[in-house]
Amino acid sequence: MSTAENGPRPATVRVLPPRDVPLGGPRAMTVRRTLPQRERTLIGAWCFIDHYGPDDVATTGGMDVAPHPHIGLQTVSWLFSGEIEHRDSLGVHAFVRPGELNLMTAGHGIAHSETSTAATSILHGVQLWVALPDEHRHTARDFHHHVPTAVTFDGGEARVFLGTLAGDTSPVPTFSPLLGAEITLDPGTTLTLDVDPTFEHGLLVDQGDITFAGTPLHPADLGFLPAGPTTLTLTNPSPTPARLVLLGGTPFEEEIVMWWNFIGRSGEEIVQARNDWEKAVRFGEVQGYPGDRLPAPELPNIALKARGNRD
């Protein structure tokens, strides 16, 4: 029988595996990066997913990312364990701990540093970026800290740090429609969530072997589901709890240029941002970090090109 007679085929999950990447210059820590990838640049406006730990900081040295610049994006910090100290050129000095959100808006330009604190023994979390749409990407610097309340359900709970899910809405403003939530599932639990059908969704597995809309996912996998479904079904068939990060948003139709810590629309814009950082203009200064700022890497010998999603 034809698809037309049965209606459209259900959307299927694409599994995006991680790759190991050193982060933070000469004191680099290793992270698992699942976005961007060659076949997928964005999920909604989410354009960057780094997943790290659990790291014993006595062995690894933890996180020590010296002052560095950003343009055209928002950074989202979310921890499962440990504590990170944030300083930026807006003058913000803040901490983020498990179950708390730090969201920094770079806009036209900001600089910040991130270091794990002496209170940290095990460092474990995610660092995420959101691409700002063209009409807002030169906005003023900004920072928000938010502690979401746990929404409990039969067999687990959710903490919604951006957007709306399971009847809870984050008060943190965004520049495009977004969803971000940590979800925990008890062993043997199946959860069906109502979601916005105009959203694409990505599910990052931190702990556990689960199925996402019928597709198996393993720790550090990112499952991508195109827009269309009105519900998402998550199942934890294992005898141990699962922990997941659900991200979503309306498809981001603009092409972007991503290089180092910058998101622009052209190679020339990236070159200008790099020059501004090297000349110590535009981004401001980070006060209180005990060390030098990161130098910009050399630009590649090929032209920087804008990219979007291929499908």
From TrEMBL:
Positions annotated to bind Fe cation: H68, H70, H112, E114
Cofactor, how bound (note): Binds 1 Fe cation per subunit.
Ranges of residues in domain Pirin N-terminal: 30-130
Record-annotated Pirin C-terminal domain positions: 181-280
Family annotation (Pfam families): Pirin, Pirin_C
Cofactor: Fe cation
Molecular function terms, GO-annotated: metal ion binding
InterPro entries named in the record: Pirin, Pirin_C_dom, Pirin_N_dom, RmlC-like_jellyroll, RmlC_Cupin_sf
Protein origin, superkingdom: Bacteria
Record keywords: Iron, Metal-binding
Gene3D superfamilies assigned: Jelly Rolls
Family the UniProt entry places it in: Belongs to the pirin family.
Protein name as annotated: Pirin
Organism: Kitasatospora griseola
Organism lineage: Bacteria, Bacillati, Actinomycetota, Actinomycetes, Kitasatosporales
